[in-house]
Amino acid sequence: MKKRIIVGATGASGQPLLIKCLEIIRESEEFESYLIMTESARLTLESETTWKVEEVEALADHVLKPEEIGAGPASGSFQTAGMVIVPCSMKTIAGIHSGYAENLLLRAADVTIKEQRPLVLAAREAPLSPIHLRNLQELSMMPGVRIIPPMMTFYHCPESIDEMVYHLAAKLLEPFGIEAKEYRRWTGL
């Protein structure tokens, strides 16, 4: 049986990262993805990329709507390897931080925290306000929660934006044990 990974997407900027994460998960024989996209994510996707929502959904093994609050990921008995939210808006960060599980994406994150499974948040905002920083700091202290803002890196000498996106997506999936084929780790000077 494949390990399940929940992939959430919100309306923050960074939809190419979502696409690359789904592609990398698809390449792994050990994992299957459960995609939950908010309405804002759908709108942002079409403004940031040439992809259609249906094309992105086709990359996932399973697609769930945010209003499907009774779906599997809403329960701790639904075994998963964890959850990644990419990109993750500050609105979603605030909802997770406060336990405001008004939809399946927020409920799945809530369950992931309570079950102490890995929760990776690709937090997207700049500049960060004191409210954002407080929410992120308090979430980062919870077992299993990792805040991985999509920060550019240059040590792997990227030659294109696509290479940067790939590297960032690989970093987001690393906590689940997914080894992206082209991921170049730091090896020292």
Describe what you observe in this structure.
There is one protein chain. By secondary structure, the protein is of the alpha/beta class. The protein has a single domain, classed as Flavin prenyltransferase-like (Rossmann fold, 3-Layer(aba) Sandwich), CATH 3.40.50.1950. Helix content is 38%, strand content 17%. The chain has seven helices and six strands, in the order βαβααββααβαβα. It has a six-stranded parallel β-sheet, sandwiched between helices. α1 links the parallel β1 and β2. α1 packs across α7 and α4 packs across α6. The longest helix is centred in the first third of the chain and has 13 residues. The protein is globular. The mean pLDDT is 95.
CATH class: Alpha Beta
Morphology: globular
Strand content: 15-25%
* Mean residue pLDDT: 95
Distance between the termini: 41 Å
The side-by-side strand order for the widest beta sheet comes to: 3-2-1-4-5-6
Taking all Cα atoms into account, the compactness measure Rg is 15 Å
Low-confidence stretches: none
Q: What is shown here, in short?
A:
The chain is α/β, with parallel strands linked by helices and 189 residues long. The protein has 7 helices and 6 strands. Keywords: Flavoprotein, FMN, Prenyltransferase, Transferase.
Task: List its salient traits.
189 residues, alpha/beta, Rossmann fold, six-stranded parallel beta sheet, 38% helix, transferase
Could you outline the blueprint of secondary structure elements for this entry?
Layout: E1 3-9, H1 15-27, E2 31-37, H2 39-48, H3 53-57, E3 62-64, E4 82-88, H4 90-98, H5 104-114, E5 119-123, H6 130-140, E6 145-147, H7 161-173
Helix pairs in contact: 1-7, 4-6
